[in-house]
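User: structure tokens for this one?
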Amino acid sequence: MNPTRAEIDLNKLEFNFKQIKQHLHSENPRRNIKVCGVVKANAYGHGIQEISKKLIEVGADYLGVANYDEAIKLRTQIPDAPILVFGTLIHSKLKPAAYVAKLLKYNLIATVASLDTAKFLDYYSRKPGRKFKIHIEVDTGMKRIGFDVKRAFKNISQIFSYKNLDIEGIFTHFATSESGDKTFAKSQLNKFNELLSMLKKAGMEFPIIHAANSGAVLDIKESHFNMVRPGLILYGYYPSGDIKHKIPLKPILNLKSKVTFIKRVDAHTSISYDRKYFTEKRTFIGSIPVGYGDGYWWSLSNRGRVYINGKYYPVVGNVTMDWVMVNLGERSSVKIGDDVLLMGSENGGDLGADKLAGMLKTIPYEIICSVADRVQRVYIDKCVREC
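Assistant:
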């Protein structure tokens, strides 16, 4: 059995969720703000089904996914919770009526980012005789998808004339909420508020309004409206160093394996592909069955560290698809079968995704989302109800 696994602590997920709720309450004590837990991309690599179940158990009001395949898969495990699909619909389905009927059957909430999507859902919802629940996305500056805020009023007015749509929500998405400089984010928020005011004056109101992603949850109080969409902070990481430590968070995933082979090699011996590393003296090399095929980045070759029995050891030679080699030193006490921490924090070792991201000049999102499907997810949920 492959010893490489991702240990995911659901108690820490609950801790992070409660910290978010407490923060929302302290910032907005007179409002009950809903939480849409963002679980797209397999819950940022943590496992969409188990993470979603836990989020609903601890009080999440909605779940947010990237596309309809994710949504349908999730609905088979989560029968009742509202599921909001952020992605757009493909209108060129061979059997559009059957397709829309299937989405209605699964009780999914669509993002409408264009009139074409609104018309498509309205037309093909007639035959089933059910209104399709939608949230309208407005582009205030992200320039990804959504109605351009300058022309959104006219388009949204037309959507309100459709008879087969249940217009439940409206939202926008920030481009720079995690930055210390909030100038652009505040400009986006102002545009969104101006549009909401115009719509309200014209009699168009929305039960749910949302804009805040993780950065805005932490640092733009005015954007909380009556629902927020935390993603990365649920999993224990801050979206940037500019807004670190606004609330306490605990990373919930540890990527771990075991030492499965140890060899003693002489000085001046090359290790791994392309001979990019040579030993300086006689030493022990440990081999660990994890590699870039598991989501442990090739870029960590000769740069990464692992944590074994309370000590850090350097990754030496090129990371391969299935193996990493580490220099255990001239007099090693490490044994075959010892646990290895590759990412995360445990027993004083800190190899968080944020630290790996800093080393690799990327973002923690990419690090945690890279954990491959072939890595077994092991869920820890030992906390009794009283804790």
